[in-house]
Amino acid sequence: MLGSSIERITVTSEALRGNLVGAALERTVDVYLPAGGRRDLPLLVDLVGFSGSGLSHTNWRAFGEHVPARLDRLIAAGAMPPVVVAFPDCFTRLGGNQYIDSVAVGRWEHFLCAEMVPALEARFGCGGAGRRGVFGKSSGGYGALIHAMRHADVWSAAACHSGDMAFELSYLFDLPRCVRELTAHGGSVEALVAAVEHGTKPSDDLQHALEIVAMAATYDPDPSAPLGVRLPVDLETCELIDERWQRWLAWDPVRMVDAHAEALRSLKGLYVDCGRRDQYNLVYGARRLHRELDRAGVVHLYEEFDDDHTAIDYRMDDSLPFLARALTAS
Fold first, then answer.
1. What is the pLDDT of residues 105-136, one digit of tens each?
2. E strand segments, 108-177
3. Which residues contact 10 (CB under 8 A, 6 or more apart)?
4. What is the reported pTM?
5. Which of 59, 198, 244, 287 is the residue whose CA sits 20 to 30 A from 85?
């Protein structure tokens, strides 16, 4: 029996054409193929957190496992049935991705659902209706939730580790820091982005400012603004501009449950977890989401664990078997 392998492919996107941040149309995808064959297996897609790429999850790691090694161990131990797993590179100039459609950042929902998934299934004979799952952490966990809500016709199971939600708790704190950094760069979004791209060691404030810039370009893009970025605050007083902020909140998973409850109820499996000491306050959003899912009658597995937001890949030991079993159950 052959061992597992990683195959690297390129998917050319039309959905991303014309994005304002210049995200490349040629997207690299690493694909994990388990030992013993790859046809007629479920397909899982890994959406990584902000500032990451799926390609980082297939890299060798000191004193730990990369995700393919984790999959090998779990499958060999009988903890989960074999699956094909895709690791797409969705990195952008703004440092990351929330995996939704945006005129500024790109039409990432369409890329993943209408371009990448069909390309993978045609090439590897995996997945298919009822046999696709999506998972991720942080921004990737957010993406997994949103895809489960908006594209239950594509995805049949989802896992969210410490995903972005309860935006008033997770994003508002960083808005003043972003305004300060933007002011320090002459009020220019392009100058701020260039400082990260070309700086030798971007400060913590600068990196968090870039994240807020990316969120603005994602949740409330303004095609008339540089790189499509318009912050939801007054740049002098940092007062919220309610109309713009409401557009952000419309993308908050906690607030989206009611509108997408039927789709969520149709899933074969939904997994949500978060660390009780999450430094971005995401555990409070996770608890709110759990409450809303219960209220809407959405069957799901919710867990909290004694950790923060950092270095929690070990949680995949729970979520990957959960997804694989859900997608192979009769």
1. 999 999 999 999 999 999 999 999 999 999 99
2. 132-137, 157-161
3. 26, 27, 28, 29
4. 0.97
5. 287
